[in-house]
Amino acid sequence: ELRSPLANLRTTAEVALRRNSPEIHERALRLTVLEVERLTRLSENLLTLSLADAGVLLPVTTPVDLALVSKEAIEAIRSRAEETGISLEVTSDEAAIISGDAIRLRQVFDNLLDNALRHSRTGGSIRLAIYRSSQKISLTISDSGEGIPTEDLPFVFERLWRSDSSRARKTGGFGLGLAIVREIVEAHGGTINAPSNSTAGTIFQGFFPLSGE
Question: Residue 119 in contact with residue 186, Cβ under 8 Å?
C-alpha cells in the first residue's frame, strides 16, 4: 500500500526534472498532491488501527446522538451523490444516545457511506436507518450496487483484504476502511456485520448498547 504511491511520486518527480516544460511541471505537481493525499489517508487509517491495538482508541467518552452524527455524515456526501444521481434516504429515531467518541463514530458513518457511494450504480440509492429499542440502537446502511459475493462476506472486515470481485477492482482502496469500522464499533461495545445480500446490493448492520449500559 505504501510502495505504490511512493513509486508514483518518484517517477513523477524524475520525469518533471528531465523535462523543462511548464505543462509537465504543473501536471507533476497535481499528481504529487493526489498521492500525498492518498498517503495521508493511509497514515491516518494506520494510526487509528494502531490506537485500537493499543487499547487507547477511546480515551474519553461522552453522550453522543447517533441520529445527529448520521445526518451530518449524509449531508457531507450529498453533493457527490447528486452528481451521479444517487438518492439518499435517512430514517432515524430521535435521541439515539450512546456513550462514545463523536469523532470516531463519525468515522464509522463516513467509511460506510463512502463505501456505499463508491459501489452504487448511477441512479441508485443509499438508505441509512437508526432505530432505538429498549436495549440497543441499531444502524443499517444499504446500497443498490452489485453486492458482495457470499463467499467474500466473512472477510470484508479483515485488514488489507480486498475481494477479486468487480466491486473491488473498480474502486481500489486500501482495504482498511471496513476494518476501522469494526474496531470503532467494537470499542463502543457494539457489533457489526454484513448479512448475505450478493444479489440485492450491500447491507451493513451495526448494534450499539444504549448510553449508560
Answer: no
The rounded distance, in Å, linking the Cα atoms of 172 and 92 is 31
Report pLDDT digits (tens) over 108-125: 999 999 999 988 888 999
CA 116, chain centre distance (Å): 8
pLDDT at 100 over 60: yes
pTM for the model: 0.82
- β-pairing, 125-132 vs 87-92, is parallel
Closest-CA residue to 42 (of 159, 199, 166): 159
HSE toward the beta carbon, residue 171, CA cutoff 13 A: 20
3-state SS, residue 109: helix
Cell reading at 4 = 505504490
Q: Identify any residues that bridge with 127 across adjacent strands, giving them in sequence order.
A: 89, 142
In 55-94, alpha helices (H): 66-83
Query: Position of cell 461522552?
Result: 62
In this structure, the chain runs to a length of 213
Percentages (nearest 5) of helix, strand, coil residues in the chain = 50, 20, 30
- Of 190, 205, 186, the C-alpha closest to 52 is 186
* DSSP secondary structure code for residue 208 in this structure: E
